[in-house]
Design brief:
GO terms for molecular function: oxidoreductase activity. It holds the Pfam family adh_short_C2. It is a single chain. It is built from five helices and seven strands; from the N terminus they run βαββαβαβαβαβ. By secondary structure, it is α/β, with parallel strands linked by helices. It has one domain (4-199): 3-Layer(aba) Sandwich (Rossmann fold). The model has no long low-confidence stretch (mean pLDDT 97).
Length: 200
């Protein structure tokens, strides 16, 4: 069965690979990024998300691969660092679900993104661990309240093999190829699981 899927963060490493995977499967993909793609939206801006979903119309699923956090030593983190991460990767994803829900087809699905820091903190990653844990908690709880047979899941990748520049911040972590992350999204989008955190 072919689906109409909105991919937010389509210009990033994971987003590009996900678009390629979905199109190879014959699905219709709507690419969304801050400044490129079929539509532009910023997950920090709830109004831009609302405008996006109204413009696209009915769709079967939303896969989010966007979300930024601040990093740094605990004692140096500022109110602004926390506010940015909470407003972007956490509330940004929650607002994706809140604004898209009225437009998603019956038995549709959402896939959000967290990351390995939930289970395996690193130096300077306090905010990342905080935010990822919040996303995963939201997904687990919201899955019990989704209407019309709609499912919600989360993909939690470790450091990507392609993101060589940040490997020094993840000593001893075994990187994962981005195509494997895209396959996890595919499973979450079109399988039967609900309320699950898929670690990759």
């Amino acid at each position: 069965m072919k689906h109409k899927v909105i991919v937010i963060g389509a210009s990033g490493t994971i987003g590009k690979e996900l678009v390629k995977t979905l199109e190879a499967g014959g699905h219709e993909v709507i690419r969304v990024s801050r400044s490129s793609g079929d539509y532009q939206a910023d997950i920090q801006d709830k109004q831009s998300l609302d405008s996006l979903f109204k413009a696209v119309g009915t769709f079967d699923a939303v896969a989010n691969a966007a979300g930024d956090v601040a990093a740094g030593p605990l004692e140096q983190l500022t109110d602004e660092n926390y506010a940015f991460a909470l407003g972007n990767k956490l509330m940004g994803q929650i607002n994706i679900v809140r604004t898209a829900l009225p437009h998603v087809a019956d038995k549709g699905s959402f896939v959000l993104i967290s990351g390995v820091l939930t289970q395996e903190p690193i130096l300077g990653g306090t905010i990342g661990t905080l935010v990822n844990g919040g996303i995963e908690g939201f997904v687990k709880a919201a899955s019990h309240e989704m209407p019309r047979g709609i499912r919600i899941n989360c993909v939690s990748p470790t450091v990507l093999a392609e993101s060589v520049a940040i490997h020094p911040y993840f000593p001893g972590f075994i990187p994962v190829e981005v195509w494997k992350v895209a396959k996890a999204y595919e499973r979450a989008l079109f399988g039967i699981i609900n309320g699950r955190i898929i670690t990759v």
